[in-house]
């Protein structure tokens, strides 16, 4: 198992199939069946399409019956705008449950995609608009880059998963820490679309004390999701 090979104890997971199913919730049902015996290590997030009828029932089943720990949105794959009334209703409903919301800026590098995969990357300015609309939501940005802390409301809780960022060359990780805080960063392996080795190396070569590295490695994400330390 890749997690064991790289000493990864726990992982936040969601359904890849849910991005492409007409009814995304079928992917959540598959994810529930495949992870229910491994919840000590695999923490599932529901993928809900607010443009699909019945999303509220899917949301409640995912959180109340399946025990999922957060929501993942795929606006670029499901073809809806984060500012639409349906999207805002879904985000608001998730926030009222006190659960975090994940927003992937991309799933895979465009150069490596299948030619039928035409989804755009989620732009950082669209993220900033969404944070401003919902400053009380706990946000997790996946495959994040180009996030500017000055565009994030002061009361907004945002974590950026760093598998797309650099510790050398442009030094995206260090820049975010200088302009924001180490509390805004989280380790991400990028699996299954990336090999986890580079992310592990980034964390190792980061010139920061152990307690900062621990926050990035696991503590920031664990606190946001509510995983006991």
What report would you give on this structure?
By secondary structure, the protein is α/β, with parallel strands linked by helices. The chain has a single domain, classed as Metal-dependent hydrolases (TIM Barrel, Alpha-Beta Barrel). It is 37% helix and 11% strand. It is built from 9 helices and 8 strands. The strands form 2 sheets. Strands 3-4-5-6-7-8 form a 6-stranded parallel β-sheet, with helices on both faces. Strands 1-2 form a two-stranded parallel ribbon. Helix 7 links the parallel strand 7 and strand 8. The longest helix is centred in the C-terminal third of the chain and has 16 residues. The radius of gyration is 17 Å and the shape is globular. The relative contact order is 0.11. The model has no long low-confidence stretch (mean pLDDT 93).
Question: Which features would summarize this protein structure in a list?
Answer:
single chain; 229 residues; alpha/beta; TIM Barrel; 6-stranded parallel sheet; two-stranded parallel ribbon
Give a short summary of the structure:
This protein is 37% helix and 11% strand. It has helices at 2-5, 25-35, 55-65, 75-78, 85-96, 124-133, 172-179, 197-205, 210-225; strands at 11-13, 42-44, 46-47, 71-72, 101-104, 138-142, 157-161, 185-186.
Number of strand elements: 8
CATH architecture: Alpha-Beta Barrel
**Assigned CATH superfamily:** Metal-dependent hydrolases
Distance between the termini: 23 Å
Please give the share of residues in helix.
Answer: 25-40%
Topology (SSEs and partners):
Layout: H1 2-5, E1 11-13, H2 25-35, E2 42-44, E3 46-47, H3 55-65, E4 71-72, H4 75-78, H5 85-96, E5 101-104, H6 124-133, E6 138-142, E7 157-161, H7 172-179, E8 185-186, H8 197-205, H9 210-225
Parallel strand pairs: 1-2, 3-4, 4-5, 5-6, 6-7, 7-8
